[in-house]
Design goal:
The chain is mostly helical and 304 residues long. The protein folds into two domains: 93 residues, DNA polymerase, domain 1 (Orthogonal Bundle); 178 residues, Intergrase catalytic core (hpI Integrase, Chain A), CATH 1.10.443.10. 56% of the residues lie in helices and 3% in strands. The protein is built from 13 helices and two strands, in the order αααααααββαααααα. Strands 1-2 form a two-stranded antiparallel ribbon. A hairpin with a 5-residue loop joins strand 1 and strand 2. The longest helix has 20 residues. It is globular. The chain starts with a helix and ends with a helix.
Length: 304
Amino acid sequence: MVNSLFCCIFEAMLEMYIKYLEAEKRCSSNTVEAYKSDLLGFFEAINFNESVEDISEIQMSEIREWVLELMNSNHNPRTINRKLSALNGFFKYMIRERIIESNPINKIILLKEKKRLPVFLEEKKLNNYLDVTDDVLDNYFDIRDQTIIELLYATGIRRDELINIKLKDVYDDYIKVMGKGKKERLIPLTNNLCIWMHRLIIKYRKTFPTLDNEYVFITNKCRKIYPNFVYRLIKQKLTIAGFTGKKSPHVLRHTFATHLLNNGADLNSIKTVLGHSSLAATQIYTHTTFEDLKRIHNKSHPRK
């Protein structure tokens, strides 16, 4: 039986927490939506427990039962840990606001995750694909698509960062992007990418009628591009080019970082360009290159 009083209390608390994530934590819209979905899932699961009438009455046992339900529903450990992290943040906020006194999730142990290495594309094959001659592309939309792929690979920016680039953010040889936590960073452009950006903005973009003049990349309907547009574009273009396996904007970000490291760039420089808050997030690429090195060694060494 649904506890209507609990529903009202939770909805009010959730609204407060979402505003806190947006205004104070400055989380991205994707992060906010993910947290909201995870929290709704938890409170929907325990809403049928008639013994719980207030958030302060939630015990560790309810959380453990929820985790077991998720495991029985074949959710992977990474997803479950993300949901627990969302719940932990919510309870910490409730303590801060003096709505509850203790965090019932404190003694919950996160599930062990299988280490996942970043997926990246083969360097020579990708560069061969990107070597497109000027006379092949002669309209705004083709130039736009090519520039998006070049930009993601040449800078390693995130999909949301690319979508929100405005004309005022593009300079002669660098761009300004707004990263996670509303942190701005400047990213240098390669000579080749400078040519593509110049062609797009000067030769085609400024003469194209738009409704969103401030954004560099627009759709065929003259609107700002959106996340699924970029994902479909990358997947379609790379599939046509003959790439197999996972294909996404984030794969191009992984590819950028991996290729930089393989060609001698230091981790701190890669961290800065990627916009990582700590070096720990960047160090995963050292594992990727080491695994690649092992593969080459095993294949090539005469005493394999």
